[in-house]
Amino acid sequence: MKTFRITLAAVLLAATMGSAVTVHASQDAPKPMQGAPNLTHLHDFDFLVGDWQVHHRQLKARLAGSHEWIEFEGTCSMHKLMNGSSNVDDNVIEKPSGTYRGVGLRSYDPVSGRWAIWWLDSRDPFANLDPPVKGNFVNGMGTFYANDTLDGKPIRVRFIWSHITPTSAQWEQAYSPDGGKTWETNWVMQFQRIR
Length: 195
Known about the structure:
By secondary structure, this protein is mostly beta strands. It contains one helix and ten strands; from the N terminus they run H-E-E-E-E-E-E-E-E-E-E. The radius of gyration is 17 Å and the shape is globular.
């Protein structure tokens, strides 16, 4: 089963990488990188390798003036791929409305020195992947941004990884309806290492 998950993740990552750059036929070889690779942030996600218990806190309604939060549990198991230049995590999310799974796909760009992160949700497996958030870590905190839409309106999305220790970490997601002037945090995940 583990081999199947890693193979599936590699196939999904390859498919999404093709959609994130200029479209080319699958027979065309990617253009070679010019100059030395920027590996400064290649190991940004090494801390996440392994198995985690995750406590979720999620805003019930996003960008709607809500202050009602729901809390639930889950797990996360993360593995490196492609010699560390990509990784995948398998998430079990136990919401009160029902359990589902999600896959986080990450890929490192040695030209820009940034990571791109996509999300695949088992509740809608044939949906288009959201635009990837992109960024890296500075002084122990990772910040990643993307442009997206919510209910047909443009929003800015931000992921922040922080409070990282060998046995714990925090992830949070925020949306901005005004191009990043103001932010509403709508999901916080507290990670505790299992192994």
